[in-house]
Specification:
This protein is mostly helical and 151 residues long. Among the domains are: 35 residues, no CATH class; 66 residues, no CATH class. It contains 9 helices and 2 strands, in the order H-H-H-E-E-H-H-H-H-H-H. A two-stranded antiparallel ribbon has the order 1-2. The longest helix has 18 residues.
């Protein structure tokens, strides 16, 4: 049963849904798909062929690091893009949008989290934050305010 579960996951459920059993043909098709989807080499930005897991990982890491890295934009670029735009936000609205986050706003957000929901990768549920709010609120408030002031 455990082996069948393993192969069910490997085959993306196709064969077990269509009634095929744990046969040699089943294993061959799974291995063929694995080989077809495997990367043996890639070209880097300079067009140089890279082989092996380490080199392929390095090319992928460099590609995505460059893709998701912000490049500084000059003030002239912003002026050119927004030339002719009419401002729809008043000074009052802008002040309200850019003001700091208050302790009360953070408290309301924490209390609005569903008790069984985990808002972050730490795995703590909303119930934890709500139950221990009085003990942990200085640290939470500090982190949230620091996020908004220092990005």
């Amino acid at each position: 049963m455990e082996e069948e579960t393993y192969w069910k996951l490997k085959s993306r459920n196709h064969w077990l849904h269509t009634g095929d059993r744990n046969t040699c043909y089943f294993h061959h098709t799974t291995k063929a798909r694995r080989n077809k989807n495997r990367l043996l080499s890639v070209h880097n930005d300079d067009g140089i062929l890279k082989k092996g897991d380490k080199e392929i990982a390095e090319v992928a890491t460099n590609y995505f690091a460059e893709l998701f890295t912000a490049t500084p934009t000059s003030e002239e670029t912003y002026e050119a893009v927004f030339q002719g735009f009419q401002s729809k936000i008043t000074d009052e609205m802008n002040e309200d949008l850019t003001k700091g986050v208050t302790i009360e706003e953070i408290r309301e957000a924490v209390l609005s989290i569903g008790p069984t929901k985990a808002p972050g990768p730490d795995g703590f549920t909303g119930d934890f934050y709500q139950q221990f709010w009085n003990d942990i609120n200085p640290a939470i408030v500090n982190e949230v305010q620091m996020f908004f002031t220092t990005n």
